[in-house]
Amino acid sequence: MTLTTAEADKIVADNFAPWVQALGLSVAGAGERHAVLRLPWSEQLAREGGGMSGQALMAAADTASVIAVSAARGGFGPMTTVQQSTTFQRAVTGQDVLVHARVTKLGRRIAFLDVTLTAEGAEEPAAHATAVYALA
User: pTM higher than 0.90 for the full model?
Assistant: First the structure.
C-alpha cells in the first residue's frame, strides 16, 4: 500500500512538533520505499549570509525519512531516530528544497535510509544525509 500525499501530510500534522510543522513542509510524493518533501524557502530559515540553515535541512531530512519508512511499512508506526549524519555541500538561497528520502533496508526492528536534499531546479545536491531508525 502506497501512502497518498494527503495521508503523508496527515502523518506530519499528527505526529510532529509544532516547530517542525512551522517549517511548512509538504509531501510532494511517496512511493513504496521513498518519499519526497518540499521545504519552502523562507527568510526565517536563513542564517547569516542568506543560506538556509542546516537545522532546517536536518529537520526536513528527518521528517522525510519518517514518511518514507511509513510508506514502506504501509502506514505510520512508532519509530525513533537512532542516527542521522548530514553533509552540507552547497548553500541554498532563495529556493525551495526537495528532500528525497529512500529506504535502503527495512527490517522488523530497524530501518536505514539515504536522503538527498536538492535546491529546486539544481542538478547537484545541497546536502546528503543517512539515517537509522528503530521501529516499534
Answer: yes
- What distances in angstroms separate CA 37 from CA 25, 60, 62, one per listed residue? 6, 8, 11
Rounded to whole angstroms, the Cα distance separating 118 from 38 reads 10
Check whether 1 has a pLDDT greater than 70: no
**Given pLDDT bands bounded at 50, 70 and 90, which one contains residue 57?**
very high
Please answer whether residues 43 and 77 qualify as being in contact, where contact means their C-beta atoms are separated by less than 8 angstroms.
Answer: no
Report DSSP state, residue 4: P
Three-state SS at 38:
strand
In the chain, the domains with their CATH numbers are 5-135 (3.10.129.10)
Helices (H) and strands (E) in the chain, counts: 3, 6
